Amino acid sequence: MISMPLTVSIDNTRIIDPTNGDEKFTVYQVTVRGGSTPTFHTIDRRYREFEALHTRLSSSVSLPHLPRKVLLHRRSAKLIEQRRQLLEIYLNDLLRRCQQQSIMPEELARFLQIAPYDDENRKDQEQQDFIMNNNNDYETKYILEHAPCISISDHCPWNNDNREILMDSILSGLMHAMYDM
Known about the structure:
This protein is an alpha+beta fold. The protein has helices spanning 47-57, 77-100, 106-112, 118-134, 160-179, and strands spanning 7-18, 25-34, 39-46, 138-145.
């Protein structure tokens, strides 16, 4: 059983442009926090890795909807940001479902690089980082920063005193909905 809720956020995306002739692809930077062995780390995942995880888990876990693959305009900033948000929601919903059932499928633990699979994956990631940093085969471009999925406009009809209460109420409602607090 997971004692502390495990949460993920997808804070950034990068477009990788291999110079070896392969097609460009988007990488989502997934930040993992919490768990029975408290952790905080970031891993890079391609959309195809999300698809593979979804396929492997489909027989053992009730799965949320995975955002669909798009063939046209797939590198537009708007589409990448939308998919980043949807993948973040997907992962957190998947974690919530697993936590409600007090299970942690091995495939999901490996995907998120959490104990007991964090060491083996960390070595793989360090090796990939070394290759990426020491080999000029890849040109890395940061294109998006994490944007809040919800915000309160400065033009709200509430005065500043009530605005704090409103923000607290919204955040409390979101936390309640996500973690059944």
